[in-house]
Amino acid sequence: MKNLTELFKENEGKRAIGSFNVHCLEMLPAMIEGAKELNVPIIIQTSPGTAEYIGLDLLVSSIQTLSERNNADVCLHMDHCTDIEVIKQAIDTGYTSVMYDGSSLPLEENIKNTKEVVAYAKERNVSVEGEVGSIGGAEDGVVVSEEDAIYTDPKDAYQFVQETNVDAIAVAIGTTHGLYKSKAKLNFELLEELSKNLTNAGLVLHGGTGVSETDMRKCVALGMKKVNVGTELNKSYIDNVNSAFSQATPLTSLRKLFIPANQHIKEIVKEKSELFQLV
Ligand code: 13P
């Protein structure tokens, strides 16, 4: 298993790394197999809710097994965590990367808390992502509108990175989490400016669901280093499982009902990962 810094270094100039939210254990093997089939690294990220549902220890051991089985570069990352104690538990259990999300706090407090996380993580060779600005919307399939996004203020972002020494920073350039009511309007000038000046921390695009192929390629070309995709996997799984379960009888082998859903997860991981390639 690798941390973000290692993945950023090894993939510099080649690609952004896809960071996919796992929603249940059943879909996990397909995600890593998808990355392996393309020979690209993958970040598996868990919301604190998913981590609690599956269990930190089970996630760590499953990812270890699957990365060895597939001989794949995998990073296990805690997504959007606001609780420093949960972050420390994840690190102690074997996560290789964590995100402390203090974006709803005043900047000074966000910096102070993020520094505490960085101090704990760095001693244990774990990378840290922070967030400045507000990526609107909500996760888990909630429909949101683009008006919810608040763009990152570049001055705040520079101060944040300089003072916290994070490895990665989530910036708000117009994407929002979840399904879009309307097409995201991305601020590419802001991205260019951030990318030019923030050379010490990898830029992270949240809200990958609903971003068009052209916009996604442009984001990667302009310097996004990690791209998060969550809702698209959740939606696809529900659609496929719904259709398989609605045709099942009590004697249908349960495991067979997940096969089409898993196959689609693999396809999404591959399709998205291809968009993240620079060369
Ligand atoms: P989507 O659910 O919009 O793909 O966003 C995922 C994400 O950014 C998780 O942090």
TrEMBL record:
GO BP annotations listed: carbohydrate metabolic process
Positions of Zn(2+) 1 binding: H80, H177, H206
Alphabetically ordered keywords of this record: Metal-binding, Zinc
Co-factor(s): Zn(2+)
Cofactor note: Binds 2 Zn(2+) ions per subunit. One is catalytic and the other provides a structural contribution.
Amino acids binding Zn(2+) 2: D101, E131
UniProt GO molecular function: aldehyde-lyase activity; zinc ion binding
Organism domain of life: Bacteria
Active site: D79
Record has Glycosyltransferase as a keyword: no
Binding positions for dihydroxyacetone phosphate per the UniProt entry: G178, G207, G208, T209, N228, V229, G230, T231
Xref: NCBIfam families: cbbA (TIGR00167)
Name used for this protein in its record: Iron ABC transporter substrate-binding protein
Species annotation: Oceanobacillus sojae
Gene: fba_2
